User: Which sequence fits this backbone?
């Protein structure tokens, strides 16, 4: 009996060690991939884009599951003129933002953003911290529509925002089947600092993709800035950006890659973005 118990205990330890090795290997490969993409992007003469360029869908971590997404964004061509005193001109700056997440329940997920900016000279700046809470309404197994809400609050650096404190309300409305995914985020951004307007700013996002093959989807993402919700900007003063995107999922990794073009009053004319996801199981 003791020999069988020892053998069983040995098997458990061996499987646990194998699981740790697999996780360490995946984490190492993930970090190497992030470093490679960073080096490629750093080699491009570019301007910094926003630290998060993403349309939210119904995807959530399972209860008790940790996740990590690495956001990397560059503006290939854009403005070099600060929008307000104290803003750092974004010329040749890499936006690199880890996003940590944790599944609280089947319908609720918490997240933490840690946005960094790296200059061509190698200087690294922490540009604040943001936390979020994402809710997706319960659905039947055969239900294709999804609904939810993401609430995000954070502290920012004046290098990137004229409001030290901000809040984002992001409704999530979408549809997914075996072939198609469409998700609409009618986002409201609010500055909370005393020296800025507290009027909600309407900044919609839309994602449309189609399945190309197993683990690969292609399509478009749209982002707009329409001004204050109660006093929208005239159509010739709104900004629009359209991205061609690819979503890839393989071996536990999820990658969103896109090239975007800004129109009308967009601050950035051409933008490259990547989101690299690794579930920390």
Assistant:
């Amino acid at each position: 009996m003791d020999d069988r118990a020892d053998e069983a205990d040995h098997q458990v330890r061996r499987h646990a060690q194998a699981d740790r090795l697999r996780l360490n290997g995946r984490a190492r490969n993930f970090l190497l991939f992030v470093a490679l993409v960073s080096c490629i992007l750093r080699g491009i003469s570019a301007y910094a884009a926003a630290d998060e360029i993403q349309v939210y869908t119904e995807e959530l971590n399972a209860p008790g599951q940790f996740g990590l997404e690495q956001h990397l964004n560059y503006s290939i061509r854009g403005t070099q003129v600060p929008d307000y005193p104290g803003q750092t001109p974004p010329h040749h700056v890499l936006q690199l933002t880890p996003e940590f997440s944790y599944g609280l329940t089947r319908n609720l997920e918490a997240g933490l953003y840690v946005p960094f900016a790296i200059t061509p000279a190698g200087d690294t700046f922490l540009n604040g911290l943001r936390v979020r809470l994402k809710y997706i309404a319960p659905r039947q197994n055969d239900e294709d529509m999804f609904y939810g809400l993401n609430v995000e609050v954070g502290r920012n650096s004046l290098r990137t925002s004229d409001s030290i404190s901000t809040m984002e309300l992001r409704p999530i409305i979408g549809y997914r089947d075996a072939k198609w995914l469409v998700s609409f985020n009618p986002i409201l951004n609010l500055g909370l600092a005393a020296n800025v307007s507290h009027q909600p700013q309407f900044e919609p996002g839309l994602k449309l993709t189609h399945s190309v093959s197993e683990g690969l989807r292609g399509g478009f993402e749209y982002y707009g800035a329409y001004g204050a919700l109660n006093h929208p900007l005239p159509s010739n003063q709104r900004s629009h950006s359209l991205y061609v995107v690819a979503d890839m999922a393989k071996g536990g990794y999820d990658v969103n890659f896109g090239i975007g073009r800004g129109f009308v009053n967009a601050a950035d004319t051409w933008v490259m973005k990547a989101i690299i996801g690794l579930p920390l199981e």
Notes: Residues 30-48 have pLDDT under 50 and may be disordered. Helices lie at 2-42. Residues 2-42 form the longest helix (41 residues). The first strand starts at residue 66 and ends at 78.
